Amino acid sequence: MPILKDSGIKDWKPDRLPDLKGKQYLITGGNSGIGLEAAKILAGKGANVIIAARNPEKGAKAVAEVKLCGSGKIDLLQLDLADLSSVRRAAEQATTQYGPLDALINNAGIMQTPKQKTADGFEMQLGTNHLGHFLLAALLYDQVRQAKGRIVTLSSIAHKFGKIHFDNLMLERGYDPTTSYTQSKHANMLFGLELDRRLRAADEPVMSVICHPGYSDTALQSTGPGALFSGVYKVTNALLAQPAKLGAYPTVLAAAGDKAQSGGYYGPTGLFDARGPVGDAMVARHALKEDVAKRLWQVSEELVGQKFAVG
User: Fold this and answer.
1) Which element (helix H / strand E) includes 108?
2) Cα dist. 99→128, 133, 252 in Å?
3) CB-hemisphere CA count at 13 Å for 305?
4) What is the pLDDT of residues 93-105, one digit of tens each?
5) Annotation says 181 is catalytic
6) Which of 181, 249, 265, 266 is labelled catalytic?
7) Rounded-to-integer distance, Cα 264 and Cα 242, Å
8) Rounded to whole angstroms, how far apart are CA atoms 121 and 135?
9) Short-list 210, 233, 230, CA closest to 157
10) pTM of this prediction?
C-alpha cells in the first residue's frame, strides 16, 4: 500500500501547532470522542470552535467542556447528518452567523449499525458518513475558500476493506453492517482524494486533507453496532484501543498543522495503523482509482441534489 505524500511528518503531537487565535474551525460530531478531543486541543491553542452536534443537550455539555480549554469563542450548531434538510439549515446558519472557516472538519460518523434508513431514504451509514458530509462541504465550500482553509475528511483503516457497490449502493440486497461501514469509509477516502484533484485542477486556495484515528476507544464501538459486535469491542477496546485523545491527533494535524499537505493522509503508523506515532498513513491501492472517485462524486451530487462547485 502506498503513501500519498511524503510530508516528512513523524510522531506528530499537538505541541507543534502554531498559535490559532482568531482561527475558526467547524467540527461535526464535536460533542464526543475524537471530535470532542480535537475541539479541546484546537481551543487550547486559542481557536474559535463551532461544535456541530445532533443532540442539543450533549452539544451544550461539550461546549461547556471545550470553553474550559481556551479563550476562544465556542459555539453549538445543531446538525443531523442523516437528514439533508438539517444539513441545509445548519449550513445556512453557519454561513450567516460565522463567515469564513479555516477548516471544516467532517468528523462525525456511525459504525456497523443494523439496517436503517436516513430521513431521505439512504442507507444510514453511507447517508451519514458520506452523503451528509458531502452536502455540508458543498454548501460551506465558499466559507472555507474565503479563509483559504481546509476541508478535512475522516476516513478509517476500514477503507482498505471497502468498495463502492454502485449496483447496490444502498445495500437493499444482502445488507451487512460491516460491508456498509467499510463502503462508507472508502467513500470518505475517495471523496477527499477527488476533492484534492479538483482543487488542484482549478488552482484553488483550499486544501483537502484526509486522516484516520487508528483504533481509538470511543462511543463509536458501543452506540452503533448490535449486541454481538458491542460485546467484542468491549474486550478489544480494553486490550488494543488507544485513548480518544491520541486518536484526535491526526484530525488536529490535518485541520491546523502547518506541515499537513493537500491530498495527504495522516494517522497512526504503528501496528496495522491502529495506534502509534502519527505521520503519513498508508492508503489502499484501490482507493486511488480516479474513475471510481469521479463516478461516486457524480452519484453523490445527484443523490443530495447539489452541485459541488470547485473553481
Assistant:
1) none
2) 25, 19, 21
3) 6
4) 999 999 999 999 9
5) yes
6) 181
7) 23
8) 15
9) 210
10) 0.93
